[in-house]
Amino acid sequence: MRLLTGKPGWSTSADVVVIGSGVAGLTTALNLRSHNLSVLLVTKATIDEGSTKWAQGGIAAALGPGDTPDQHKKDTLIAGAGLCDTKAVDVLVSEGPEAVRKLIAQGAVFDKSATGEIALTREGGHLRDRILHAGGDATGAEVSRALLAAVKDDKGIEIIEHALAIDALKSKSGRVCGVVLHVIGAGSRDGVGMALAKAVVIATGGLGQVYSQTTNPSVSTGDGVALALRAGAKVADVEFIQFHPTVLWRDLANRGQQPLISEAVRGEGAILLNHKNEQFMIGKHPQADLAPRDIVSKEIFNQMQESGQPFVWLDATKVKEFKNRFPTIHASCLANGIDPTIEKIPVAPASHYASGGVRVDLDGQSSVAGLYVCGESACTGAHGANRLASNSLLEGLVFGARIAAALAKNLPNQEEPIEDSKTNLLDPKIVLPLQISMSEGAGVLRTEASLRKTRQTLSELSRLTSEQPEIQSWEASNLHLLATAIVNSALTRKESRGSHWRSDYPNISDEWLCRITGELDSNGTWKTELEPVK
User: Does 252 score more than 70 pLDDT?
Assistant: First the structure.
């Protein structure tokens, strides 16, 4: 099943196509090259505009004195609220330190302490200082810079920018053997074309634009996950959307990407206050303001409900050297008329990270042959019901390397694509009402009634079709498919766990110690199953 497109006007090929230029895509591409495989790296905007550069906090790894992978594992399992795949967590925390050392060897420069050692800080859910950071609050930008420099130096990596990956190409055997791309630009590759490959790796990042307010950039429309679903792949844990608790609140009219206030600010001593000037997280969790993100987001939401105000306060006025420690955040606050060194910052939760995605094994293989997924687009099971802070960049490093190693051992011959049926496109006009409906009915707080209302809205929006194959209609179709997946899984899970909060089912239940998977059948109908947690 594919989206409607024009006839492909060009084609190219490589051993492996990697879609996405964040930490997951760049790491996968570089590791594929270490095995002497040719790579076509496709990115939706320019190569340096992946979501990775927006990551402020850092990378979690057991590198500090007295810290161990086992301690990192325990913190990850607690945050994941019983739904982590323990083997995936073992891989993440045990291979993580070496992956970070390799990143440093590739040129990434992290902040140092006064003694010259790598400076480690703490974020929500971590019981030890194990977060590496760069430029104070510009870790993602530094990681991206280092990886991009290596990619650009490698002649075996061909880069196609401004390219939307629309759908997978499949062979007669059912194996993915390439992708359909639409490139915006001049020259022979303008418009729709085909990129053939022996395997395809999706590393397209998040789907934050499903919601009206998000920390994700405008390109984060979940294209890779939607592509995988139409190719027949299973997704899992998609109901677990992590809302970052402290996003700079500006105005209800502001939609799309919002400025993030990293929880590392709280790690350095900032506190949350309600409109009565009370430090409301005390007594709500042993770690108070540094509790896991889902717990902080829920409590902020409660405070907002109680006060009738659309935000709470973050008081960072006592954080030492704020401007030097958090230069990006400081500049962002000033740009919005707030001096965080002398004023409290208004904050509210916003869509931040998808803990679920395309279901993959420990080598990143999806349920469809030839299709691999890495990073936020994937569900390895390592995050469970709620990703532990700063495990995301680490996941991209670790599993990108594993995918490359697996493909180097078992890369099949190139197969030829066959034609596939086309499905309707949706009108771009559906995007705004879809985002508003998702934020209101499937956001931080959910109920049976709110989810059913959102599903009804999605059903009505599905009737607004378009016969114009263009980026806006492809994105609208992807967002609708992903919103449907999230709502269906959220309706299925009748409990509150991790970042899934049902006020009509407020308790956690052993009955739901399982993973909800979903896929599209041959008729395009949504199919849900329960998978035991490993």
Answer: no
pLDDT 10s digits, 4-31? 998 999 999 999 999 999 999 999 999 9
DSSP element (H, E) containing 518: strand 514-520
Of 14, 36, 17, 23, the closest CA to residue 409 belongs to: 36
Question: Exposure of 380 by Cβ count < 10 A (0-12 exposed, 13-18 middle, 19+ buried)?
Answer: buried
Please check whether residue 465 lies inside any domain of the structure: yes
Cα 99 to Cα 27, 74, 108, 404, distances in angstroms: 10, 20, 12, 14
Which residues of 61-216 form beta strands (DSSP E)?
120-121, 131-132, 157-160, 163-170, 176-183, 191-196, 199-202, 213-214
Q: Are 254 and 234 in contact (CB under 8 A)?
A: no
User: What are residue 359's phi and psi, to 5 degrees?
Assistant: -70, 125
Print the domain residue range for 431.
423-532
> What's the CATH number where 490 sits?
1.20.58.100
Q: Phi/psi of residue 484, each to 5°?
A: -60, -45
Q: Catalytic residues, which ones?
A: 293
User: Shortest CA distance to 93 belongs to which of 69, 76, 60, 71?
Assistant: 69
Domain boundary among 350, 380, 398: 350
42 belongs to a structural domain? no
Encoding tokens for residue 202? Answer: 């999706």
Based on the structure, what is the number of domains in the chain?
2
pLDDT at position 187: 58
What is the distance, to the nearest Å, from the Cα of residue 187 to the centroid of all Cα atoms in its chain? Answer: 32
Query: If you count them, how many residues does the chain have?
Result: 534
In this predicted structure, the answer to whether residue 188 has a pLDDT above a threshold of 70 is: no
Nearest-CA neighbor of 358 among 24, 4, 55? Answer: 24
